[in-house]
Amino acid sequence: MSAQLLEVPRLVRPESLVRIQQVEKTYAGRQGPVRAVASASLEVGRGEFVSLLGPSGCGKSTLLMIIAGLETPTSGSILLDGSPVTGPRRDIGIIFQDATLLPWKSALENVLFPVRILRLPLRKYRERAHELLAMVGLTGFENKKPSELSGGMRQRVAICRALIHDPSILLMDEPFSALDAITRDQMNAALADIMEKTGKTVIFVTHSIREAAFLSDRVVVMGGRPSQVILDLAMPFPRPRRFDIEDGAEFNAICRRLRLTIEEAHGGPAQSGTAARANSVE
Q1: Which residues on adjacent β-strands are paired with residue 216?
Q2: CB-CB contact of 223 with 230 (8 Å)
Q3: In 3D, which of 242, 101, 111, 118 has the Cα closest to residue 185?
């Protein structure tokens, strides 16, 4: 199977919220320029969950930070709801690999922190903060400090913090990569439920094939160095999703196709492999 950009088969395409147009990123290195991203073009529809999938170092996080306005592209452009992204914006929520909670503040106070920074009416958003914490199963933990919470709980607080001011889009950079396998599965289920309830547009960076296939409406594979989009594949599974879809032949065939595409693009062995290789490209 050749690694190539494929047309995404969708009966009805949602209205585009994000347009990534021929974005390139080159860094100045000691031994000369380093191209991290080469001419990436992509559209993300309103309400879509799109995963950027690929091994570490393939440029997916760089592209995400450009979308967030935290990195400037060398060339090309990013449009969010029709307007150029030229820097950090209030209508973009970001979740990083680490929850990055303020250790001296409670879970509730961490969720409300962007409200204080943006100088929004605290009384109005306090009720929303309680509702978000309840939605992610943290009722009763509002006054706990981060040191009193598990890794999964801290990431749930981070998700609430990103959603508190109701951004148009949520950008997630491998938010569950540091969690153990069981907690990661729990967080995937929780995230799928949260997105069903909020209807948010999500761009999600991961190196886990099964995670991408389970969570996403589309999986975009980043390959080559410099990085480029080599596959854009729609997931055929209806929502809401349950973990039992991972036992099906169709799910496993899609995971194998994604893995083979990545291995061809990055020079890895295209083998059926072990369960561990099917789960992650690292």
Answers
A1: none
A2: yes
A3: 242
Provide the edge-to-edge strand list for the sheet that holds 75-80: 32-45, 16-29, 75-80, 83-84
- Spell out where 96-183 has E strands: 169-173
- What is the model's pLDDT at position 273? 41
pLDDT digits (tens, 9 = 90+) for 115-147: 999 888 898 899 999 999 999 899 999 999 999
Distance between CA atoms of residues 183 and 72, nearest Å: 34
Task: For residues 203 and 94, give the distance between their C-alpha atoms in angstroms, rounded to a whole number.
Answer: 10
Residue 133 contacts residue 107 (beta carbons within 8 Å):
yes
266 Cα distance to chain centroid: 21
Q: Report d(CA 277, CA 206) in Å as an integer.
A: 14
Q: Taking the CB of residue 111, how many other CB atoms lie within 10 A of it?
A: 29
Q: What are the tokens at 72?
A: 């400037």
Q: Does the predicted TM-score (pTM) go above 0.70?
A: yes
Q: Where are the beta strands (DSSP E) in 54-168?
A: 75-80, 83-84, 92-95
What number of residues does the chain have?
Answer: 282
Q: Is the dihedral of CA 143, 145, 150, 156 positive or negative?
A: positive
Relative orientation angle of helices 122-135 and 151-163, to the nearest 10 degrees: 140
Neighbours of 118 (CB within 10 A): 11
User: 205: part of which helix (H) or strand (E)?
Assistant: strand 201-206
